[in-house]
Amino acid sequence: MKGPFIFFCISGLFGIISAVEGIWVISLFLLYLFILGIFKKTPSKWLILNSIIYFSYFLIGDYTVMNNKTNLLPQTSELIVQFSDEVKINGDRLRAVVKDTKTKEKLLLTYKIPSDVEKKLLQQNSLLKYTCPIQGKLVVPDTARNENAFNYREFLKQKHIFWELQVSEWQIGNCRQAQLTFIDKIKNWRFQGITLIEKHFTKDTAPLAAALIFGTRDLLSEEQVSAYQKLGVIHLISISGLHVALLVGMIFYLGIRMGIVREKLSWALIMILPLYAVLSGATPSVNRSVLMTMMILSANQLKFSFKFRSIDGLCLSFLLLTIWNPIVIFDIGFQLTYIVTLSLLLSLRIVSRYSSYVGKMTITSYISQASALPFLLYYFFEIPLLSIIANIFFIPLYSFLFLPGLIILFLIQFVSIDVFQMLSIVLSYIIDFSNRIAIWVSSMPRSRLIPGRPSALFLIIYFGCILLAFYRWEKRKYLLLIVLPWVIVCSQLFLPNISSKGEVAFIDVGQGDSILIKLPYNRGNYLIDTGGTITFSSEEWKEKKQKFEVGQDVLIPYLKGKGIATLDLLILTHGDMDHIGGSLSLLKEIKVKKILMPYVTSGKSAVESKIEKIARKQNIEISYVYEGVSWKAHESKFIILAPSKNYMGDKNDGSIVLSAHIAGVSWLFTGDLGKEGEELLIKNYPNLTINVLKVGHHGSKNSTSENFIRHYNPEYSIISVGEKNGFGHPHPEVLRILESSKSIILRTDLNGGISYKFSSKGGTFFKVIP
Amino acid sequence: MFRGWFDCNYCLICHDRIESTLSWVDLFVPEQKEVVCYECLTKLERIEGVKCQICMRSFLKLDAYYQKGELCFDCYRWEEEPNYKGILTQNYSLYSYNQFLKELIAKYKYRGDYVLAKIFASEIEKKIKEMKPNYIIPIPLSEERIYERGFNQAEALILEAGFQSTNILTRIHSEKQSKKSRTDRIHLPQVFHTTAQVTGKVMIIDDIYTTGSTLRHAARVLKGIGANEIISITIARG
């Protein structure tokens, strides 16, 4: 048989998925066997072997899933843990993967470093294999709090981690280092290597050197990472198969120049490659390429009577890595490295038709991007348009200049400081230049398409179309079909225009408000407030490199996940940070057509002025609205009930109050409206209907008077409030008032994102956390 | 058992190891024993584009003067002749007769490399299954040629494709076709002879279609003994 391994891989994959998702997946596997037998005319002995593989992987998967559970008691507070090499320090926070010495269970340790001195100590010394008694509490890691959001709990679970250990007491002096194994020593070299880079390299060369030599992105700034991601060249700053191939190539070239025989070099490489995998962080892509290269080199050396192809190596490495840890198949890096490498290897015939270098590069980039398309959309909701051009430009730059250059630079620091400094200046200059280009190009508007996360049906269509496109491309028939995947992207982009589905979503932005109104048939996407992260200035050493900011980290991914690239209206109810702070990053990434702000004459907050400035720069119309302003969008009606024109007074009572009639439901969005404002509403609009009330001011005791609730009697009351917020929101008195009026209370702190989804047939409320 | 996993085949044409790359198409189509490497396969040119509806002559590089509607000038002239009108309804040629194929066929029939018939077997098999003839008849060789070559190249194609060959035509020995002009060929006295009877759809197999006279002469004989429709397959279209 020509390539049995690829079919074994698919069978194994079905086996693992059956173990994780449920045994019903076996029906898909049987369908697959049926197709193999009938259409591909695979002989029955192969079908039997495929079934055996399916069941073996099912059993392995099942065993892993069954055992993937915690053995620790939740109330455990004293532990003796051993550190691994996964330690990250971000500002005054330390996160490390540790192992409980009693149960051998892995935990995620988080520690607030008390002093600058201790931070330096922790930064300069590897914690690997240190065993420390620690007091703290076990906390369940965060789950996803919004639709399509990253589920940290699941992510950790795939790494066999179930608890976050929040340290309360840790005497670093009481730690003892255990015996280091050979592998541990290499891990320590890695630590020392990264420390050396941080110490000696310039600010431009250090992050890239750490990324390309030791496979860590920790030194890279968020701006850089996001620029590379937007350009679709993120794979260049993680160690990938390309790097391994280049390194092997370089060693071969140098070795042969030095007069070493090819055979000896091959064996030497086979020995060194696993060490290199450890040295560079053992990410899935490194493991994949190292394992694959080792197998191919060995096969060549052993001179088999048959030809061992790269694709066989790829498939065997898949079968091996999934035996080791079956649930690694859910890792993004693992999925991408396998799908792209497989597609490229299957396309060798297509690529060989193009003779020019540029032609080959273009085709290769196209194939990588097309095959990764469904994965990119699923995880990142968007696709970079400039990726192919960016790859043609950046791949040679990284492969032939930065990678060898930085390795040489790293080695030279041990030889001659003068040469090091000279070379360092040159490289800094070029890297800085290339970074600037990357950031500049990636910040160009319209450089990405944002179709959002595809539904299961769309995913199936994507995979089908990609297979069909490549099949036809190879057959040289209907060549135009190679653009088929992009046609699907376009149809996904177009879908909202013909969809009768809409929603009103209370996004969980922690302490703050942010409400998305998505009207059916693309008749309007409105966002009321954006949430906002309040930052406190602190000492320099406490400053985090990767800061959490709700606009960037929650709101933008949420909108992208829904495929929203343009907001027709951004309604900013009033100037408080927790309502409008997220706008600053939102305006950078999402196109806003018009901003509504309250028509108030009392002073503006600093954020408000900043937003006005950005809006002016981007030519976004700002409309200052007041009581009586109203508009319609087909059947939906919107009317602003407050503030009165030229309102002066308390900022919260000057919030925009919006009454909306959407899908037969009457909504009242109140911002931070206080009791005084509520009284005014009763006075001015005694006959107003409210089916769903966005409870004012996160349930503060200054809002939601008994009178107000009694008067309007909302069926649903939604409180947008942060989990464990410092203000004591929502106030028990408010909850009592709402309960006594029999209003159904939904809270973002308990339920995560809350969304009313509707279509022409009616709607229901959905909660992310049930 | 494991040996079969990586069977290593050598190309029948260039004798290099066939680098069996696994590609997108291989994922879907049934496995076939590869006899020719990918490079050699690409040198065999299929006849694509607009072509004569009878003889498959490509119109791509043909002067408009030699095109008569859907037919080429040659076939048009054959159809003008009352004796030959409608005698051959459709010829299918696998490849165009380029230099590469010319050498390949020479090696096959003149130098007796019988195994090369396997190169065309799967394509011919596919076509025969598609056309469903009642009889598959090879163009015969004279006794003298058979003695020289040791096998009939047309019959070998049928056998390698896995079908039964109906050898009912015999040939009165004559000069080689390749030494004659077109007029010579058309106005040749009948060179084929038979004593059998056939019915329905009959397929003739030959190695090369040059002017179509051999096939048409054979077809005429077959028509005379009861064939309804006569079609043909050749490796090459000259």
TrEMBL record, chain A:
Keyword Ligase attached: no
GO biological process: establishment of competence for transformation
Entry-linked Pfam families: Competence, DUF4131, Lactamase_B
Membrane-spanning residues: 7-35, 47-65, 233-255, 267-287, 308-327, 333-351, 387-412, 419-442, 454-471, 478-495
Protein name as catalogued: ComE operon protein 3
Any GO CC annotation of this UniProt entry: plasma membrane
Entry keyword Transmembrane helix: yes
Organism the protein comes from: Pseudoneobacillus rhizosphaerae
Record-annotated Metallo-beta-lactamase domain positions: 511-723
Alphabetically ordered keywords of this record: Cell membrane, Membrane, Transmembrane, Transmembrane helix
Automatic annotation (TrEMBL), chain B:
Domain Phosphoribosyltransferase: 153-236
Pfam families (alphabetical): Pribosyltran
CDD domains listed in its UniProt record: PRTases_typeI (cd06223)
InterPro entries membership: ComF/GntX_DNA_util-trans, PRTase-like, PRTase_dom
Family: Belongs to the ComF/GntX family.
PANTHER family membership: DNA UTILIZATION PROTEIN YHGH (PTHR47505)
The protein, known as: Phosphoribosyltransferase domain-containing protein
